[in-house]
## 1
Amino acid sequence: MHAAAKPPHRRPLIPARWAPYVFISPFFLLFAAFGLFPLLFSVALAFHQWDPVGGVWSMRWVGLDNFAYAIARDDWLRKAMFNTVWIALVSGLPQHLVALPLAWFLHRAFGRWRNAVVGAYFLPFITSTVAISLVFSSLFSKDFGLVNAAFATLRQVPVLGWLMPGQAIDWSQPGYTKWMISAVVFWRYVGWNTVLYLSAIQTIPPELLEAAQIDGASPRQRFVHIVLPLLRPMVFLAVTLSLIGNLQLFEEPFILTGGTGGIDQAGKTAAMHMYAVAFMDGDFGTASAIAWLLFLLIVGATAINKRLLGARA
Amino acid sequence: MRRRALLPLPLACLVARPALAATGRTQLTVAAFPDLDRSAKIAIESWAASHPQVEVRLTTRAFDDHHTAMTTAIATGANLPDVMAVDMDYLGKFTQAGGLEDLDASPYDARAVAPLLARFTLGPATGLGGKLRALPADIGPGALFYRADLLARAGLAEDDLTRDWASYVAAGVKLKQATGSYLCASAIDLKDILIRAGLSDGQGVYFDAAGRPQVTTQRFVQAFTLARDARRAGIDARIAAWSSEWSEGFRRDRVATQMMGSWLAGHLKNWIAPAQSGSWRSAPLPAGVSASWGGSFWAIPVRAAHKPLAWDFIRTLCLDRAQQLEAFRRLDAFPALLAAQQDDYVAQPIAYLGGQAARLQWRAASERVPALHVDRYDQVAKAIVEAELDQVLEHDKPIPQALADARAAIERRVRRY
């Protein structure tokens, strides 16, 4: 009779007590490399002068100079901030003013087709920004664009023709640039907000709306007195997302204005200016300082939004 | 066994070796932008035969993206190519910092081959410490391209465009009245030429050799005045170059001339207006101005992995006559190598330009271009000057005030670094 062969005891590669940490380490490693390090490096960069073409060893400590320059002396940043806030308001407000009643309408009017219609509204949000911007560039072409062609056609219609511009609009002129960008941003994100509001409407107990209907409330009254108050938490979330997105607006104005901000920099946003300072001026330090100033602006705007919409929500 | 499975994936990745190492081949990485990448592909074909143990990996990015990617690659050392392309417009930014190899030093000794190349390219390619940091592959001698048929309809001749600037503007007014076409796409183009007028070797467009802004000089006053006069005369279409309206403007006879590098002939022929073959002509720039547009250079990053091979490849790109001529024939990339400029091909007529032997004209133009000093902040100054010109053209800002503001803005931005 032989004793059962016992496998030779081998020292484990990794001690058992480390196993949980090893299993959880990928997240922390990736977060440290791609989340935390860039954040901390950006903070450090904001206090340095650094032209990256000179290599990482060419960094030089300048203290608060980058912030002082950006706040007090960078007149292009001031202009870009003004443009950013302008576009954020002009494109952002209508998004919500349209998306709220639109979501209510979609909720009531479309039965089995609702998802298909919602998908159509949502399509611009998931389409490539570059493709959208290039298409809109063609639409807004002064001589060959469909927008001016439509105006020219409508000009022939009696009465309506009086309301149309007398000649083709040069959309690249400073007076039109921000309107053009705002129109594209509005068109792109109104579907996203509609989906947010529609999903919130669907969580409202149907008996509330049915009770109001039995009491004789019209659809408009139900929307104003029941739906809107109950949507307040979602309005707060959607407006916060719009604030963050619009204050960081980059792709649409960048492509629509050829990366320059357009004539008189009328369409240059703060994010575009930050990019130009980094990659054109070769001043990554000031660009980082601008990034943190933009962050503070977003925090401030979100705090105001919370005070206005969030508290009662 | 289960514990062995805990071996983290990253460790496995570290242990793994690139497949290339197993084959014993070296990989030379080259980064370029269109259409220069096509020139590199031609070089790779010929170079592969003499370097069977080297695999050349070419990475192409859009023009601006390429230069952005090279900036970050040099900054971080990640994805750094062995050979990188740099356009003339970005040359100052790259050569004036410490990220590119000194080609004057051994084993390159590039100064010895400098006389073989177009003289005016060496000024811009000379950077930090007065050292050569890049070699030119192609150049863009400035030319005035014009629609001969539209000019004929307006009763105008080439001399009306090139005699002097007053004549150029007057011709534009006449052309507009007779044909409805604009003489130029943008008044800003005129500014870009005139600020280069009268410069000599060693001078810079925006800064002098000591780094002082030059934007309040008479050159800029004249350039701004001409741009404003052209706008007031209504001879510019207010179209930015390379926009869809710009190319469409040529196709629909809306714009009759364009001043640019000689390489524009290739773009016109290949995609902008192929249907207008025979209608275009090339002329020297107005008022005897000599300038160049663009130009492609090759350089080696300081931290490149295969510097000797990289230099060998650059020699093929820039100093090989056959390579330069092939790129000239296929891509209309006017060679920087003087020996290639002497080839019979230069004297051949160009069908697209109505049989004109325009390359001879471009070669003569390149010989007159001064070797200008480029500054690392040229692009910053350019953006500021154009912003002020916008103020003049759109809001009638007085020119002296605009230029003074431009100078102040440049000093404010540049002095900090």
## 2
Amino acid sequence: MHAPALAERPVVPGPTALEPESSARPARVHGEPVAVTVDNVVKAFGETAALHGVSLDIVGGELIALLGPSGSGKTTLLRVIAGLEFPTSGRILFGSEDASQRTVQQRNVGFVFQHYALFKHMTVFDNIAFGLRVRRRKTGIAEDTIRTRVMTLLDLVQLSGLDQRYPAQLSGGQRQRVALARALAIEPRILLLDEPFGALDYKVRKELRRWLRELHDETGHTTIFVTHDQEEALELADRVVVMSNGRIEQVGSADEIYDEPATPFVYQFIGDSSTLPVMIHGGKVSLEGRQLRLASARVPDGPARLFMRPHEFNFVGDETGAISGVIKNERRHGPRRRLEIAVGNGDHMIEVEVPPTADHRPGSRCSLLPKQFRVFSDAG
Amino acid sequence: MSDQTLQNAPAARFRRSTTESFAVRTTLIVLSVLFLGVFLLFPLAVVFVEASKQGMGAYLEALQEPDALSAIKLTLLVAAIAVPANLVFGVAASWAIAKFDFRGKPFLITLIDLPFSVSPVIAGLIYVILFGTQGYLGPWLQSYGIQVVFAVPGIVLATIFVTFPFVARELIPLMQEQGRQDEEAAISLGASGFQTFCKVTLPNIKWGLMYGVLLCNARAMGEFGAVSVVSGHIRGQTNTMPLHVEILYNDYQWAAAFAVASLLALLALVTLVVKTVLEWRFGAELATARRH
């Protein structure tokens, strides 16, 4: 051991779900007034629980993403907020008023479905006007006003001139924009989007994503959208809520989620990562009984897992490396090249990204120094 | 170059993999057409030929005879009650099955199919046992002067029983396929349950519904077995068209029997034509419904 052990980067405490919540609920997050509060919501479908006591504050005007794999409860949470599902226990607050007992109709939320759910037998105009027309008895809104509003919205979603088309005559991207205009027509308190771009192909999805961001900046609606696409969540949202198994794993900005994952799940789910089962003793990290030149002061003694990103490695000389191994395999990975390296006794593989021109032959030994790493104790 | 090669190539080489040889194809087609001709078209033609054998005058006379007229009226009346009733039941049942989750749903679906699997004669007997003079409810109802069996109410009940599945069976797969999203979108936009049903659900199912009603109506007018048991065959009172045809036939009144039968057959043909038009015009929407 010639060089001192590389220390784990200190973790900035962020607003993660794992920290104990204070009993008094904050009325503000980062100084902004809270628009929607999810208060300890449990949702069970028969025997199986889809949400295990989820709490979340959403700021007015915020664009927030619920991100997670399928079955993580993200869509259920969105539907509970909308009132399409009722929580088994817990409350939903809009501002300071309890919305839990309110019906969907009374909540006045704009909901956009993955498969658009446009009314096939109605023109684009009638689809957008639907919400205004069904409330006409209560609001007394004039047909002229409806017409003006619909035309303004069509303009906003860049579909002017298509008002007499039927949904079947539109492309997927256009349909989703009609669905969005229809949801915006009722001037919702919040806008809820369930996998809004999930049914569209990659190019259209990227285009609509940028467009939605612009639209949000223009209209300022508090918006919650569900996605399983991390690229979409990280690129689009002010804050990302990472969910797994009906629980919130972490809430934070794209940077916080990516650079400071709060849990092993977040580290693995966001971006690529390699993991090694290690032992911690007195802040020192060892793999299969051999000490690595890595230090983790935060983690208690005992079994733990070491996480690293493929693009955060340096190849170094033997005397300064933290991990050594044998290159087993190499393959092209987009603009880069990926090496699979067997470490320890050769039972564990890690992935390392190198420039495409780099010359690393399979079979050769190498010594690596991770630029970043995280250790999570198995004790939790 | 390659285009020309393709054009000059013998067509047979590109035969679809599922297509059989000429001989097999011809045999199958001829067999089907022959079968349909002998068992379906020929008898149908005979009905019309026999009906018109005695000339147009006798034909019209047979239809204007008081008992025949009463049978036609009764048939129309029964259909006019049974079809709307089944329309309401069918929509309600398929709505419940497609849009809600509840315990015993598979049982309800099986129950809806029951009239298809039970012999119509048994359906008729059920009502005789229930409402007959020696039945469970018959004496009690009779003390209030209500006659069910051997009267119009019994015929209506038996017809409703037999024709119940048509609308529901048509709508359940259609509504299940459509899911709940349209309705959820409507209520999230502020529509009430009734508004959602009228403006969203009904337009979504209208062609399937029409198709179901059509089949239901054809069966309601043509039903023989169940109605025969409960009707009592009282001429001019409880005879529907199919029953009247049988009576005329048993009385050796061939021309009259075929005249009334031709009217029933005509109804079947009209149903068939409307059904075909619906399928042709709204094929895609009906495809899901017919997949059961």
